[in-house]
Amino acid sequence: MTLATMLQALEGRVTVLERQGDLDVSVTAITDDSRKASSQSLFVAVKGEQMDGHRFIPAALKGGVSALVVQEAVRGISLPFVRVEDSKRALGLLGSRFYGDPSNRIRMIGITGTNGKTTTTYVCKALLEGLGRKVGLIGTVAYQIGTRTITAAHTTPGALELQQLLAEMASSGCETAVMEVSSHALAQDRTSGCEYDVGVFSNLTQDHLDFHKTMENYFQAKLRLFTGLGEGHKKNKRAIINVDDPYGSRIVARSPVPVWTYALKSKADLRAEDVQLSIRGTTFTAATPVGTFPIESHLVGEHNVYNLLAAIGVALHEQATPDQIRQAVRNVLNVPGRFERVMAGQPFTVVVDYAHTEDALVRLLTAAEVLKSGRIITVFGCGGDRDKGKRPKMGAAAVRYSDVVILTSDNPRTEDPHAILDQVEAGVIEGLRERSHVQYRKIADRRQAIEEAVREAHGQDMVLIAGKGHEDYQIVGTEKLHFDDREVARDAIQRLGVRL
Fold this sequence. Notes:
The protein is α/β, with parallel strands linked by helices. It is built from 16 helices and 24 strands.
């Protein structure tokens, strides 16, 4: 492919400010990492939050690149180059063209929101597979292409990796890609070059303010998925929006494509009626644009009713029948690290969940409150080098719904774990003014904290281990250590001799 051909992808989307040299030069690879530069490759210099790719142009030249795309003015370069107004946005567009515009060869389902993205993507995948489709998945837990599973480094991969994954999906026969679309990815233009058929909004609550700074910035990043549905050449697009969330109505008002709303409390196109919750699962009647039909799911908690409604909306838009949906929903047994039960012969319930925001923790705890027969024992922490504002709020939420709270480390990263716990504790102390009977402890070592919760539990108690879910590691300092809450809980039950 020539550089000139690739540049066609920028027309009307990214302004080209300057051109030099023969743009018909052949390009056999594209990268924004100078360490991967090679003969006949195109190097795109991107200005990131921490690193400026323009600093690495000399290294890229040494690697033998045949052309450059830059944002800043460059001098003394004899190679063909193009200067654009926004190289970050250009990267995804150029990558898309290089890999054959894969998002135009498959159906694209994008799901965004603070909580519920992972569960909704897994349920969507199951429902669409119930139609006989081969479905690829991109999300927090893993990237899946047919039977191939790739460990996910980010919820939404980098722009070039994303286009390459989509191209692999299209080449392997996938008809649809279901993907979590993070606010970081939208703000950083990682999804530039993707044309979506369906966009789903789950909810918006405080998270990632270390990056976005304000909730309005956070919302505007999420909104880009939906305003972007108006671009491109695909037909039959739709937005599926949770209007029980106050931000949902704002997205509906801005959507350039038809909308289906979903809700439990508000008037909506998709609603759940006669909801019945138990530790064994959930049943309800789905009231939809094509009629009403019963749903039986193994997923637990009211928050999963929202996730199921969103996935049902996607499936209906993709021409699934109610019978196909009912059967596919029944086949979803669990989602990794989302209200995942640990069973090792103990009489009490142990649940591992990814809840790592105030809203997600409240959803987990309120689900547990409906289902509990005994006490709720909650183990959780807050990640280091992340939004500090949510720490006391999560502490207060834990006290509001728990009988015993054990504060511990999550991924402390480069922060002092004890300093993080002190900030969470401030919210705990505030919550104790109204719920003074709640016991709490601080145990910075997460393994010891989980063991303490298991030692504390008996009878009909429910132990909730929140924050890490599917993750099988803990980041301490800059080191990534193996740590799986499910393994640790199971080991603690067995070592402590807990049995029926």
